[in-house]
Predict the 3D structure of the following.
Amino acid sequence: MHKFPRRLGSLRILISNDDGIRAPGIKVLQRIAKQITDDVWVCAPMTEQSGAGHSLSLRSPLWLRRIATRRYAVEGTPTDSVLMGIHQLLKDHKPDLVLSGVNRGSNMGEFVTYSGTCAAAMEATLLGVPAIALSQQIDPRERHVHWPTAETHAPGLIRKLLRAGWPKRTFINVNIPNVSPSDVTGVEVTRQGQRTMGDSLVERRHPMGGRYYWIGALPTQAPGRKGTDLAALGQGKISVTPVDLDLTNRRAMKPLARALGASRQ
């Protein structure tokens, strides 16, 4: 289990995201983190990396650029940024906690596998640093984002999580509903829901000839099953999902071993 000191003001926090170093959500997360401790550092992608997933830049160099005091950008992915933050920027005094976000848009269900926000938390967890990913649900048809909802509720939620602790090789995925701060109806610990993935491709023709494609928008989602992140947000609740990095389907091991005549540990 990850355990944290009772006096949280002594923590060193590293912040990252996938929306880029200048995204409004990362500024919100800085203000959230500074309600917990003064020792807050930022190491995030230089440009937006939404949908980058848990990808590493293996064929190009990583440039670390100082933007301001304790604020750095990496020309790479969210995974690159956390790797650089932990092993280079803060190598002499590693962070006690990584916070990723606040993402503009939710990261629920199978979207966790695409999410650069979750990937940053995942990389920190693999490197032995406990991590929390935070995402603010939005309505894609609206420009308004309820940033005050995240800023109001996240500090207290993070403190409670730090006092409780959680297992190693697990990160915490927090999704905040698309409502005003006063309309949040509670907090629920959830499992991942299932979403119908967008499978439409929008075809366009280039003026100079040839065709190109955009990945289409997701279809309207049905309410999630009770106990899932999807259902919780649909009820105006904050969803807290512990995500285990062991992806093994243990129930499938025995029948597969029997079918293959193989041994199983």
Notes: The chain has a mean pLDDT of 93. The radius of gyration is 19 Å.
